[in-house]
Amino acid sequence: MSSKLDYISDTWKDGLFANKVVFCTGGAGTICSAQVRALVHLGANACIIGRNVEKTERVAKDIATVRPGAKVIGVGAVDVRKLESLNDAVARCVEEFGGIDFVIAGAAGNFLASINQLSANAFKSVIDIDVLGSYNTLKATLPYLVESAKKHRVDPNTLKPSPTGTGGRIIFISATIHYRTMPFQAHVSVAKAGIDALSHSVAVEFGPLGITSNIIAPGPIAATEGMDRLLPSDAKNVYIKTQPLGRIGSVRDIADATVYVFADTGSYVSGQVLVVDGAAWRMSAGGGSFGKLEYPDFLLSGDAVPNVKGSKESKL
């Protein structure tokens, strides 16, 4: 990214997250890397986790350039579906930095497919990556979140923030598509609903220990893989005209929301869903079109969604 304003606004003060450690799954992705980049710019060090070794390490090195002295570790070859894989990544992060203060659970899978086209294995794959992966991320990092929360609690008598800053906070990356549903996304809708429920449970069970747990639900964000998959270029201009704010979002919008939740500004925010979508989800109740995939005509045709990798026609 070419400038600070590409990934964070001028609202936040430098050094806000000095001496803090961020652990982020899906950290080499467009949205999550911007979130981490913003936190590192504001003083944090980070471990980003991914499947692809070369990409994860390359993105980590790039993020570290935003602040002199920043340390960012890229841990590749991690499968969030396997708890032992995440435990190893967490151990490496803690060995390097001494602990973990903030967690972003952002690993996800997505593609367009109708239920007829969606095999049981393809459905399970998304559930495993999104829901089980989020749960494994939580389980692997929870002891360190508890430790950090204990160090950084707001004084219950004076309500003054900790002089050492904040910690013990987790954000799960979700979506808005399950609020009113859309075609070709049954697998993702189910997965994201599960992630939302998980976050709410964490907030209730671990709030007494000082941990906050929240959801950030991005809407359509420019220059992301998800946007390219779900909204082809031939439909993008028409779609933008239907948006309440007349634009789609930027990764900076998501990064700023992340800073808000992790900073003192979010000290009493827990068990919440922070939708960052410019009111986009309120504009439709599903339906619409995905480029040339007009609803309901495409579904009624019986054709398969083209160019879907890794899926097979399911047998009814």
Descriptive account of the structure:
The protein is an alpha/beta fold and 316 residues long. It has one domain (4-286): Rossmann fold (3-Layer(aba) Sandwich). It contains 10 helices and 9 strands. The protein has helices at residues 30-41, 53-63, 83-97, 120-151, 177-180, 186-206, 225-230, 233-241, 251-262, 297-301, and strands at 21-25, 45-49, 72-75, 102-105, 169-173, 212-218, 273-276, 289-290, 293-294. The strands form 2 sheets. Strands 3-2-1-4-5-6-7 form a 7-stranded parallel beta sheet, with helices on both faces. Helix 4 (120-151) packs parallel to helix 6. The relative contact order is 0.15.
What is the topological layout?
Layout (H helix, E strand, L loop, with lengths): L20 E5 L4 H12 L3 E5 L3 H11 L8 E4 L7 H15 L4 E4 L14 H32 L17 E5 L3 H4 L5 H21 L5 E7 L6 H6 L2 H9 L9 H12 L10 E4 L12 E2 L2 E2 L2 H5 L15
Parallel strand pairs: 1-2, 1-4, 2-3, 4-5, 5-6, 6-7
Antiparallel strand pairs: 8-9
Protein name: 2,4-dienoyl-CoA reductase [(3E)-enoyl-CoA-producing]
Catalytic activity: a (2E,4E)-dienoyl-CoA + NADPH + H(+) = a 4,5-saturated-(3E)-enoyl-CoA + NADP(+); a (2E,4Z)-dienoyl-CoA + NADPH + H(+) = a 4,5-saturated-(3E)-enoyl-CoA + NADP(+)
GO biological process, one term: fatty acid catabolic process
How many domains would you count in the coordinates? 1
Extended strand count: 9
Calculate the terminal CA-CA distance, rounded to whole Å: 46 Å
Instruction: Calculate the mean pLDDT score and round it.
Output: 91
| Structural class computed from helices and strand pairing | alpha/beta
- Which H/E pattern describes the elements? EHEHEHEHEHHEHHHEEEH
SS summary, helix count = 10
Named at the architecture level, the CATH assignment is: 3-Layer(aba) Sandwich
